[in-house]
UniProtKB/TrEMBL annotation:
Pfam families: Peptidase_M1. InterPro entries: M1_LTA4H, Peptidase_M1_dom, Peptidase_M4/M1_CTD_sf. Transmembrane segments: none annotated. It comes from Collibacillus ludicampi. This is Peptidase M1 membrane alanine aminopeptidase domain-containing protein. GO terms for molecular function: metallopeptidase activity; zinc ion binding. Residues 338-492 form the Peptidase M1 membrane alanine aminopeptidase domain.
Length: 512
């Protein structure tokens, strides 16, 4: 070997060593707190649905091309005053970019104990506003193009009652407790839907939240996002929660909760809670099976936390909030209780992950959550159980009988309307449950029978993975179906739009 060659070889060896050692030092110095493997795993989780969609998707979702860019943020600082049963708070709301002059907010607490607005500021100056028990109407002094931030101080009285928002038996159920920016459709603000004593009269947009709450020590909280900080101040605690892209921020707290917690294979922190030991193990069991079923059928859950909370009798019936499923302890005596719990957990996929304007299209998330509950029963107890459920559903449907847990099986016909109706057009609970829950369950079953399992579940997976962390409308569901089985869109439309008697006559043959 010549001297020159030898020198070059030495140079290459020492050069490679230097590169190797520098890389090693950089890997050690720059090591993220969670470690490289966890970081790469997290990145893969984010990217994986995209790889998957590339092979599955045939067209892009066309629901709302601007939806990626719209960001609404709420920064809330509040104090829970347990002595006076009040929440005293300050919220800084930053709206997505747009043209603004009048900005309405929905106030959801009961008009009997309405939220009080203390002040509204824009650019550190008092803004003009009008308030009634249902809405806060802010008027900017000039038309503003951009992304305005409004600072609102409010006091929300907390009813001492087992109502959806209230304190009962030591459980503080804090939902829709701050001013919520109204929803626009076709450039116009929608008036707050009037509650009718049933169903969900709620409308709101996805938003990023930072919430800080001061409260007396000793509380356990279940929230729409993970806690990122806890600070103790004498007899008080302050907890800060942070979560992006949720439809609202709900807190359920009590000093008396018993809880069980675990982490799923996907890294989601699951909590199950109740004030008593009764049914707690059973609830853990139902929750685990439901999460497994929905993850397998649709895809991974989109958020880092999910809580399932059993409430005392005399509070909620059963209700979903972002990353929170609630139900009354009385549910175990309904006969259909396990199915309704599975329904509430399914809302974490349909309503939370894939968002809906519930009051405008109740059937969209209710139908999917309720059909999911049948899939839970099928996966857990077998195909025979699924078939028996569908048979029972068909009987209720064709005989036009009540489907709400309160009126199950009671004759309620004739039902003449169709499924596609907003909450606002219903006057009673019976036809709401019949058209918005029961009829869509049979719709999905009928589609499955026509498409076969492979295509049917590809359609639901497609719809889920393409729309996670977005708000969907009927068009998005149609697109997902058209991607997988374009000929079946007609069948979907038949189920959604046909007057009830006409639909029964047309589909009867499929269910004989
Ligand atoms: Zn529901």
């Amino acid at each position: 070997m010549s001297d020159r060659k030898h020198k070059r070889k030495l140079f290459l060896v020492s050069g490679s060593m230097t590169v190797f050692l520098t890389t090693l030092v950089l890997l050690l110095v720059l090591r993220p707190t969670q470690g490289w493997l966890t970081l790469l795993e997290d990145k893969w989780k984010v990217l994986q649905p995209r790889f998957f969609l590339d092979t599955l998707a045939h067209t892009q979702t066309e629901g709302n091309p601007e939806r990626e860019t719209k960001t609404l943020t709420y920064m809330i600082d509040a104090e829970l005053d347990t002595q006076n049963h009040e929440l005293k708070g300050h919220v800084a709301v930053t709206l997505p970019s747009g043209n603004y002059r009048d900005i309405p907010f929905y106030l959801y607490p009961s008009p009997d104990q309405p939220m009080r607005i203390v002040s509204v500021e824009w650019n550190q100056r008092p803004a003009h506003y009008r308030v009634d028990p249902n809405q806060l109407q802010v008027k900017l002094p000039v038309s503003y193009k951009g992304s305005p931030t409004l600072d609102i101080r409010f006091v929300t009285p907390i009813p001492r009652a087992g109502t959806r928002f209230g304190e009962f038996n030591g459980i503080w159920s804090l939902d829709y407790w701050y001013p919520i920016v109204a929803v626009q459709r076709d450039g116009k603000w929608i008036q707050k839907p009037v509650p009718k004593g049933f169903g969900d009269p709620f409308l709101m947009d996805l938003a990023n939240y930072t919430v800080r709450l001061r409260y007396p020590k000793g509380f356990t909280w279940f929230a729409s996002g993970p806690a990122v900080q806890e600070i103790s101040y004498g007899s008080q605690m302050v907890t800060e929660w942070k979560i992006d892209s949720v439809r609202n921020f709900t807190l359920i707290g009590s000093p008396t909760f018993l809880k069980k917690q675990w982490k799923t294979a996907d890294g989601v922190d699951i909590s199950v809670a109740s004030q008593t030991d009764n049914h707690l193990d059973q609830l853990v069991d139902v929750t685990k099976h439901a999460i497994d079923t929905y993850t397998k059928r649709y895809g991974a859950f989109a958020y880092p936390v999910l809580s399932v909370v059993q409430m005392p009798e005399g509070t909620v019936f059963a209700h979903e909030y972002p990353n929170l499923a609630l139900f009354s302890r009385a549910i175990w005596s309904w006969g259909t209780g396990e199915r309704w719990i599975a329904h509430e957990i399914a809302h974490a996929w349909w309503f939370s992950s894939v968002g809906t304007y519930k009051a405008l299209d109740p059937w969209l998330d209710e139908g999917l959550a309720d059909y999911s509950a049948r899939l839970y029963l099928e996966d857990r107890y077998g195909k025979e159980r699924y078939r028996a459920e569908i048979k029972q559903d068909w009987t209720l449907f064709v005989e036009q009988r009540g489907y709400s847990p309160r009126d199950l099986g009671r004759s309620i016909g004739p039902i003449t309307k169709q499924t596609t109706q907003p909450y606002m057009s219903f006057s009673e609970e019976d036809s709401y449950y019949y058209l918005e829950y029961l009829r869509p369950v049979l719709m999905y079953h009928d589609l499955r029978m026509h498409m076969g399992d492979d295509k049917f579940f590809a359609f639901l997976k497609q719809f889920y993975l393409k729309n996670r962390l977005h708000t969907v409308s009927r068009a998005d569901l149609e697109h997902a179906l058209a991607d997988v089985a374009p000929d079946e869109v007609q069948r979907l439309n038949l189920w959604l739009d046909s007057p009830n008697q006409e639909l029964i006559a047309k589909v009867q043959g499929d269910f004989q």
